[in-house]
Amino acid sequence: MSNRNPSLDGLMRNYGWAVHDFQRLANSVSLLVASLETFDDLVAPNFYTDVDTLVNLRPTSPAARRLLDEMGDEDRLTLRKLKKTRDDLMYRFFLDNKINADASAVPSVVLEKLGTSQREIDAGNAVLNRLYQALAAQV
């Protein structure tokens, strides 16, 4: 994102991409958790539960032990922050950031909040990519 105020169309495009990126991240979290546990019944993915499973992981399998070896406190904090990022992006963004459709520019504070969400998504993806690589190295 640039430092200048984009048009409302630009904000909506960037918001759409942030939501897209978060949905991919949430799916990656669910797939990673599914690779760690065996379920007697098919369980629908739940982002909050899946994040809690990862950050509170116990060494119950070789895969879980490998992730525990790879995951540090900073990684856990990054993953925990994603729950708030999701809520802010999906549920609160346009309630907390009033946008005037007639304005020629979007307030910079709105762009900064969206930029923060995108950086948190990117940080979460970096952690997940490293965890996936650790699991792949185990195989």
Explain what you see:
- It is built from 5 helices and no strands.
- It is mostly helical.
- Helix 2 (47-55) packs antiparallel against helix 4 (73-96) and helix 3 packs across helix 5.
- It is elongated.
Care to give the gist of this entry?
The chain is mainly alpha-helical and 139 residues long.
The radius of gyration over CA amounts to 18 Å
Question: The biggest beta sheet, please?
Answer: none
- SSE pattern: HHHHH
Distance N to C terminus: 38 Å
Amount of beta strand: under 5%
Low-confidence stretches: 1-5
Please, how many helices?
5
Helix percentage range: over 70%
Mean pLDDT over the full residue set:
88
Which descriptor suits the 3D outline?
elongated
Total strands: the figure is 0
Q: Which structural class matches the secondary elements?
A: mainly alpha
Throw out a few tags for this protein.
139 residues; mainly alpha; 5 helices; 0% strand; elongated
Topology:
Elements: H1 8-36, H2 47-55, H3 62-70, H4 73-96, H5 108-138
